[in-house]
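Handout, section 4.2: multi-component inputs.
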Amino acid sequence: MGLMRGLALRAAVLSVLLFAVFVGAWQVATAPVAGVASGPGLSPEQIEYARMMGKDPGAQKSGGFPTPGQVAATIVGHLSDPFYDKGPNDKGIGIQLGHSLGRVALGFSLACLVAIPLGFLIGMSPLMRRSLDPFIQVLKPISPLAWMPLALYTIKDSSASGIFVIFICSVWPMLVNTAFGVASVKREWLNVALTLEVSSMRKAFLVILPAAAPTILTGMRISMGIAWLVIVAAEMLVGGTGIGYFVWNEWNNLSLTNVIFAVLVIGVVGMLLDLAFGWLQRAVTYVD
Amino acid sequence: MSAFLRVERLAKTYQPHKPVFQDVSFAIQRGEFVCIIGHSGCGKTTVLNILAGLDVATEGYVFMENREVAGPSLDRGVVFQGHALMPWFTVGQNIAFAVRSRWPDWDRARVHAQVEHFVALVGLGAAIDRKPSELSGGMKQRVGIARAFAIQPRLLLLDEPFGALDALTRGTIQDELMGIVRETTQTVFMITHDVDEAILLADRILLMSNGNETRAGYRPGRIAEVVDNPLPRERTRATLHHLEAYYPFRNQIVDFLVSRAKAV
Ligand SMILES: Nc1ncnc2c1ncn2[C@@H]1O[C@H](COP(=O)(O)OP(=O)(O)OP(=O)(O)O)[C@@H](O)[C@H]1O
Ligand SMILES: [Mg+2]
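Output:
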């Protein structure tokens, strides 16, 4: 126990150290170097020429990669007012995140509603497994973004298309895991249910579901991870709202500090989602 | 023709022309305790699963109270070779699951009373709210037995219920089982590897031989001998070996297992 605590402490100290080194290196790499900005050895004509070629030697430093201090200031700025709304291209990070999370929640829930019952069916019936297998094998490896044009054409609504893309990418890991979990429920538990003449509904909910729950939740966790990866890309494509659109918009504004901030937010939210599913997974895991 | 359970000419074939066993016929009277002994792989579990309705025979029939067994039923309770408890339920929930399946219209209080009674019967009252993973092997096996008894089946099928237990625990649970069976006049069919266990518990012992290759060709497994237990029914584990008839009876069974069960 003491050993474990010592390990955790040492790991934490090391994490902080690594972070400090990283920020330090970043600071050094982005610090303005005196004399370079004014362009020594460059005649006014040369500077003028460089400007015409689109390379402004004077502006380069101020528009270059932001320093840690600038990013920190941006983070504080955004977090101090996350929910403001000043028109379509200027919304608080909280609102953008809310849109993204809403789409993910909707698409993911729809995927659950389809994948879990269908996975049960496939897991229980070898006939269904064999007949649906070719479709699943072909559909599964398709990048969810490849569906985007078809979705936009048929659904015509960009937000709904985003939800559809989340649905389609979440469905496969859940489907495959549910089918696998259900198919590998121990024979002996099913035999117990058989000898007790348990009705199929009670069997599904009291025997098969708890037995397969850890595998199903593994599938859901993978799906959620993929959905969070995909939503950013999808929102970059369809635009409008969401954290992905925010990244795209700030890139167009050439505001790298905002992009860095958004990247950090995406990482932290993804981690929190994964932690939540990890917690759920532990809650349904049983020791056999 | 009025036997409680009749087994007629059962055969089970996996490989063509090489049935695991063939011509297995026997009967069990109401209230009788019958054990089957045989070497590993002779087909004991298969016979038991067919009686339970979990497996189908290639040939032959099983009748219980003159009705053919055609699938699992609450009338036949099974204690499985592994304990087969559901690890996501507590001890009490495992048994309640069985009780509710047997009597779906019982209210909570009644289910709870039945569960408590049978948990107490196997001496696990203190462990009723624990998960199976928090129990020892012997305790798990006892829960399995309590679950089978709690639905009050007409026939109890036990597949090596004490196989995984150490000798000491085994003795204690054998005593418990014997007590419950005598008290409830339960009809029991039980598989065992242990000769003394069979002598202690069984009224009748079926000796099963393995299928084997002889010079005259393949001979499937079968019930080679049926022996009635000559010892008084009031026997106990502690006094068993003081009984006069004990050693000759024991030798008869051991002789069979050593020399004839796999005889060429
Ligand atoms: N699905 C199967 N396919 C082929 N052979 C099988 C199958 N199931 C069982 N057998 C064979 O049937 C025979 C009887 O198996 P069974 O489980 O009834 O043995 P057992 O007498 O209960 O053995 P043990 O004492 O080890 O539990 C074994 O020889 C086994 O190889
Ligand atoms: Mg067996």
